[in-house]
Amino acid sequence: MNEYNLNESYITDIKEKLALSTQNVQVYYGKSQAIFDANLNFPRYKITALIGASGSGKSTFLRCLNRMNDKIATVDGEISYRGVNINSPSTNVYEVRKHIGMVFQRPNPFAKSISENITFALKNAGMKKKQDLEERLEQSLKGAALWDEVKDDLDKSALALSGGQQQRLCIARSIAMHPDILLLDEPASALDPISTSKIEETLKNLSKDYSIIIVTHNLQQASRISDYTAFLHLGHVIEYNSTVNIFTNPQMQATEDYVSGNFG
Amino acid sequence: MNAKKIDRIASFIIYTIVAAVILLLIAILGYILFNGVPDISWHFLTSSAQSFSAGGGIRDQLFNSLYLLVLTIIVSLPIGLGAGIYLSEYASDNWFTDLIRTSVEVLSSLPSVVVSLFGYLLFVIKLKLGFSILSGAIALTFFNLPLLTRNIEESLHNVPNLQREAGMSLGLSNWKTTTKIILPAALPGILTGLILSAGRIFGEAAALIYTAGQSAPTVDYSNWNIFSTNSFLNPMRPAETLAVHIWKVNTESVTPDANLISSASSAVLIIVILLFNLGARFLGNKLYKKITATK
């Protein structure tokens, strides 16, 4: 693997409306630094992919965006959401996570029925009316393209679903909260190709109403579904540009080497 | 020697050891049940013990054992739950939590006679609770708490971390995630542990000799006033349990049928504990299915 100058980077200006932006984000695990100076602006209602080799810090960075790294790592810098720095200690993290949802690498439905998986957090957030809950249940399952497959089994255990269905249920569970932003951490890496393509299709549709940030180590996936792509290497954001440019006209040597499969 | 041969020899040795253990267990169980079951009768289960003449039963002892068990669980379950939840969900790994875990382990290896004498000095004498079910229940809590805490902590810990992250990512607080997602998922394990520990409480004798006492005063089973001295529910009365009764009948009893009483009581004790164990499995499975909605 070649040595690259990690302090050089090419970051494009996003002229669209922003969903989220980060300024000088540093992440430390104990003494070792995992993210250096991340400055990224995420456009609204677009899919932004974070790519990079293992250990590049893409998942670590993603988890900062809704404070899932609290208690695990130290995160410095600013993360602005609607003009508020959500990385400040005074931020109500529970409120943040209602606006910025997350789907994880492995499907993690609750050991409850399908409908309870969706409605549980809603009830907790204060939604009481049965009619509202049912409406939201159907709406979010449809949004995640799962409704047709499970509409007759809503009272059955979510654990009986296949891996791909479980993952779409997790997506449905997230969007049921009506978040602004959806963070996805390699959501398809544990799934078979058919489930993967269903997830991708789902995400494409969801990007009309949600700003999506997705970590993936699958370059084809990034090029298929994302509008913008950020390439991270060893904790540094090396290049951030429209997906087309990243894959066809990379500005940095490291990016070019990575997207053409020379390392990672 | 080739790998296959070594494997065969190892398997043979392991099977032999397992068979020896199982045979031993069957022998003990068989002996107790074989000797005791023929002497169990409705009369034996429903009449009070006799000090000097034959024909005494174990009604009061059996009830005392069950009542003591219930009281002990009422005292120890909330504490065990609190400690288990703290250790598994809230505590960070540092010297303090290490200290707690070590203390819990030390507590669990205390000989029950020591616990009993400690309970005698502190609860019976100092706090003036006297020989009472309450003293016994608190002593048994000491005895039971370490295992219960351990069990609850482990059951919670075994719930995958992904479940916590799922709860957190939906904006649920740590407490809500713990009580509404982690705890239900861990409930079958907790329940199994609880019922297994109930079996231990039920069979415990040494810890009770100096705390709950060795006498079973006649009580009135129709008196539901918990504060009345002769009520069966009064927790301040001395109460000889079944296990203590077995010990006592065998050591200092003058009844002519002491042998019969002790073997029949032992059989009852074992049968109840077996029922607990089977019940634990059944209930644990049932509960898990209900919670996870698997039909």
Automatic annotation (TrEMBL), chain A:
Would I find Transport among this entry's keywords? yes
The uppermost taxa in this organism's lineage are: Bacteria, Bacillati, Bacillota, Bacilli, Lactobacillales
Mind listing the GO molecular function terms for this protein? ATP binding; ATP hydrolysis activity; phosphate transmembrane transporter activity
Q: Name one GO cellular component term.
A: membrane
Pinpoint the ABC transporter domain residues.
20-259
Identify the keywords attached in UniProt to this record, alphabetized: ATP-binding, Cell membrane, Membrane, Nucleotide-binding, Phosphate transport, Translocase, Transport
Q: Write the protein's name.
A: Phosphate ABC transporter ATPase
UniProt cross-references to InterPro entries, sorted A to Z = AAA+_ATPase (IPR003593), ABC_transporter-like_ATP-bd (IPR003439), ABC_transporter-like_CS (IPR017871), P-loop_NTPase (IPR027417), PstB-like (IPR005670)
| UniProt GO BP | phosphate ion transmembrane transport
Query: Which Gene3D superfamilies would you find in this protein's record?
Result: P-loop containing nucleotide triphosphate hydrolases
Q: Which SUPFAM superfamilies match?
A: P-loop containing nucleoside triphosphate hydrolases
From TrEMBL, chain B:
Please report the stretch or stretches of sequence annotated as the ABC transmembrane type-1 domain.
62-279
The UniProt entry, under Gene3D superfamilies, shows: MetI-like
* Compartment annotation: Cell membrane
Task: Give the membrane topology.
Answer: Multi-pass membrane protein
**Keyword Transmembrane helix among UniProt keywords:** yes
Kindly name one Pfam family recorded for this protein. Answer: BPD_transp_1
Q: Does the keyword Magnesium apply?
A: no
Output the SUPFAM superfamilies linked to this UniProt entry. Answer: MetI-like
Its family?
A: Belongs to the binding-protein-dependent transport system permease family. CysTW subfamily.
Q: Mind telling me what this protein is named?
A: Phosphate transport system permease protein PstA
Q: Which organism is it from?
A: Companilactobacillus paralimentarius DSM 13238 = JCM 10415
